[in-house]
Amino acid sequence: KQEVTQIPAALSVPEGENLVLNCSFTDSAIYNLQWFRQDPGKGLTSLLLIQSSQREQTSGRLNASLDKSSGRSTLYIAASQPGDSATYLCAVTYRGSTLGRLYFGRGTQLTVWP
Amino acid sequence: SAVISQKPSRDICQRGTSLTIQCQVDSQVTMMFWYRQQPGQSLTLIATANQGSEATYESGFVIDKFPISRPNLTFSTLTVSNMSPEDSSIYLCSVLASAKMGNTGELFFGEGSRLTVL
Question: Is a pLDDT exceeding 90 seen at residue A1?
């Protein structure tokens, strides 16, 4: 069974902290991995996409890494801000699956307080 | 990226009724997808909708309950039929990045339609 697990389920930090969100997947035969942000009751915003051939991707204060051999990805958020408060979802496309058929983790609910 | 608009953004429905959700994309895309997010859960794929062919449903989802239309390359609808409280969820439309968007395999989502069934 192709599962995606995210740890921690929830995280509360003061503004300014650097933090790491973790994602693990059970099958190393992935096509790509995508990190999303979801605000309460809203849709998903794509943050970063890492192809299976890549080790990391960066966008502003966000950096995502991928280690296929260990089945892990991390999302690093630098200098966190209250506006970063949201649920962060990790999703995997596996090789052999239809592109667009994502397997999602349950997310990490992040709260950044001033 | 793609701009994806969904209607309605939210609705409260009575048990036994049906509701159709619309999804409009600002550019032509081959593949569109419908996902469901039940309260406190992560997202689950309902079906893949390609223009000109029948939708392909995931295990546990059937056409009679979730009929889908895909009349052209920028529009799709999902109907939730004979609703029960268990259908209360956020329903999200998504599209796969096209060649024009770089063919990266990236998936973009709409804002979602939040349905509450009483």
Answer: no
